[in-house]
Amino acid sequence: MVLAAIGLVVWIVIWQGHQRQVAAGEALSSLAVEQMLSPAPQPNAVESYLKIAGEYPKSPAGARALLLAGGHLFTDGKFSEAQAQFEKFTREHHDSPLMGEALLGVAACLDAQGKTDAAVAAYKEITSRHPGDSVVPDAKFSLARLYEVQNKPELARDLYQEVERESRFSSKAIEAGMRIEDLNAKYPKLAPVNPVPLAPSPILLTNMPVKPVTNSAASVTNK
């Protein structure tokens, strides 16, 4: 009887958690549709997303709402406020598959605020600690751009080449290729030099021993 009661309590807790997940997803979907159908950006969009994030803090929808709030703040040019939301995400949702997007958001906010050294460190952390994340090409590209600003063309070129290899046929790869061309034009020493294959030396050819050719068929006939 006791075990049955415990099982019932566990089931109720799981069911309630599932219901909250469903409610969070529906709230976020409804808000996203409202934003898409609106002819102009909604001034209270950030507050709406933060409300969902606050009401459903442990749900995937709540986590995404926090990211979306940070994204809207970034678009509005409120970089320090956006950074605060992205950093909050990294603290509260450290196991989320969206962690890379949050870290990229933090780095982009530092970048936008002119905090170059901190932004470089943040982009490098993404590429080194999250090498398989989908945001890595964006992080590498942004880091390469900062290396250009810091007059480090070789480091920039190497990263652009990695983006070009890892994101083939994407718009980011095409843009990286264009940046490589610009760097090669600006810094001629960066351009790869293809060695021209040397032709065989005529002296070696003339000094090679010539084997006499014998007419085997004629020899057999003469016999």
Provide structural commentary.
The structure is a single chain. The chain has 223 residues and is mostly helical. It folds into 2 domains: 21-113, Tetratricopeptide repeat domain (Serine Threonine Protein Phosphatase 5, Tetratricopeptide repeat, Alpha Horseshoe); 116-189, Tetratricopeptide repeat domain (Serine Threonine Protein Phosphatase 5, Tetratricopeptide repeat), CATH 1.25.40. It has helices spanning 2-37, 45-55, 60-75, 79-92, 99-112, 116-129, 136-149, 153-166, 171-186, 202-207, 216-222.
Keywords:
Serine Threonine Protein Phosphatase 5, Tetratricopeptide repeat; mainly alpha; 223 residues; 2 domains; elongated
Helix-strand blueprint:
Elements lengths: L1 H36 L7 H11 L4 H16 L3 H14 L6 H14 L3 H14 L6 H14 L3 H14 L4 H16 L15 H6 L8 H7 L1
Helix pairs in contact: 1-2, 1-3, 2-3, 3-4, 3-5, 4-5, 5-6, 5-7, 6-7, 7-8, 8-9
Task: Domain count, please report it.
Answer: 2
The CATH architecture term of the largest domain is Alpha Horseshoe
How are helices and strands ordered from N to C?
HHHHHHHHHHH
Residue fraction in strands:
under 5%
Give the CATH superfamily of the largest domain: Tetratricopeptide repeat domain
Question: Biggest sheet, in brief?
Answer: none
Provide the helix percentage: over 70%
Distance between the termini: 115 Å
- Work out the radius of gyration: 31 Å
Q: What is the CATH top level name of the largest domain?
A: Mainly Alpha
**Residue ranges: pLDDT <50 for 5 or more in a row?**
2-20, 201-208, 216-223
**Overall body shape:** elongated
The assigned structural class equals mainly alpha
Number of helices: 11
CATH topology of the largest domain: Serine Threonine Protein Phosphatase 5, Tetratricopeptide repeat
Total beta strand runs: 0
User: Mean pLDDT, nearest integer?
Assistant: 79
